[in-house]
């Protein structure tokens, strides 16, 4: 009876995440992919589905040969979408790198702090999440605009003679992404650094390593799982970011999130926008697979 209960429990534990993925990932993805194979129509919703589940299995099978990938072909004909994909990956990559540069010293300092204050430091890192994401992004408009707080401070200190133009540029987008996603980088880094055995640093220094050399040969390699996890947690959502480039970026800021919004709401072209979203998901699968492989290798090294 105990073995039967244990077996049912193990199956239930495995079934729950798979059920979650089926309901909230595969099912929505299938709906979006189905719309991407449809044609635009003046109706509500504004597309004419190629096939419907109401047709039954026989109807679905008969229409497989009629499926058209014209919407995907259209994406290759218009350079807007390719440029949006490339620009999104570049902006997300630079933002992730900047976030890592800022987050690593913060996480390292938290890991080296006395254990009694570490929970407080962790709470301070996640404290911004207690405020609405939209409000936090809007606050950067008041800070970065020509007559904003930053320019007023620099002008009062006589650091600059005229206001800096930061808002509505890619620089403002970088600032917004780094600020918004910084906790996602700090927490995985802190988790990896906090578990590190301090005696390894002492041993490296006893063998003649300088503090900097010991950091690059001992500390950083041991924190790589946290680096990879943090970079994935920042890079993946940053690629499809819409709010930050829309509010802080200018008209020249091209990201796939803004392109998707324009196709869905302004152009009312749901089939093409669904194709854009499907391709975006395929692009994001690459770093996810990379992350999973890195985790598997880290677990094997741990064994």
Automatic annotation (TrEMBL):
Biological processes annotated in GO: transmembrane transport
Gene3D superfamilies hit by this protein: MetI-like
Transmembrane domains' residue ranges: 12-37, 84-108, 120-143, 172-193, 214-239, 270-291
A single cellular component GO annotation: plasma membrane
SUPFAM superfamilies registered for this protein in UniProt: MetI-like (SSF161098)
Location in the cell: Cell membrane
Keywords: Cell membrane, Membrane, Transmembrane, Transmembrane helix, Transport
Record Pfam families: BPD_transp_1
Membrane topology summary: Multi-pass membrane protein
Domain ABC transmembrane type-1: from-to ranges: 85-291
PANTHER family referenced in this protein's UniProt entry, alphabetically: INNER MEMBRANE ABC TRANSPORTER PERMEASE PROTEIN YDCU-RELATED-RELATED, PUTRESCINE TRANSPORT SYSTEM PERMEASE PROTEIN POTH
Family statement: Belongs to the binding-protein-dependent transport system permease family. CysTW subfamily.
The protein, known as: Putrescine transport system permease protein
């Amino acid at each position: 009876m105990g073995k039967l209960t244990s077996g049912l429990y193990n199956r239930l534990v495995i079934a729950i995440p798979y059920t979650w993925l089926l309901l909230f990932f595969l099912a929505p993805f299938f709906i979006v992919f189905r719309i991407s194979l449809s044609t635009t129509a003046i109706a509500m919703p504004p597309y004419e589905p190629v096939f419907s589940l109401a047709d039954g299995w026989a109807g679905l099978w008969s229409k497989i040969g009629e499926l058209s990938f014209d919407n995907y072909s259209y994406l290759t004909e218009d350079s807007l979408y390719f440029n949006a994909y490339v620009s999104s990956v570049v902006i997300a990559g630079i933002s992730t790198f900047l976030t890592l540069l800022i987050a690593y010293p913060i996480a390292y300092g938290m890991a080296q702090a006395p254990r009694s204050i570490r929970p407080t430091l962790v709470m301070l890192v996640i404290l911004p999440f207690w405020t609405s994401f939209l409000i936090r992004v809007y606050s950067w408009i008041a800070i970065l605009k020509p007559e904003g707080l930053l320019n007023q401070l620099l002008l009062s200190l006589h650091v600059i003679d005229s206001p800096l133009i930061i808002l509505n540029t890619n620089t403002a987008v970088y600032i917004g992404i780094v600020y918004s996603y910084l906790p996602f980088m700090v927490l995985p880094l802190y988790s990896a650094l906090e578990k590190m055995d301090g005696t390894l640093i002492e041993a490296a220094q006893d063998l003649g390593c300088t503090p900097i050399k010991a950091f690059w040969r001992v500390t950083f390699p041991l924190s790589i799982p946290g680096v990879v996890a943090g970079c994935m947690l920042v890079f993946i959502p940053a690629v499809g970011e819409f709010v930050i480039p829309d509010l802080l970026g200018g008209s020249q800021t091209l990201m796939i999130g803004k392109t998707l919004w324009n196709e869905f709401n302004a152009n009312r072209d749901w089939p093409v926008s669904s194709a854009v979203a499907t391709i975006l998901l395929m692009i994001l699968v690459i770093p996810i697979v990379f992350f999973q492989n890195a985790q598997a290798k880290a677990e094997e090294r741990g064994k």
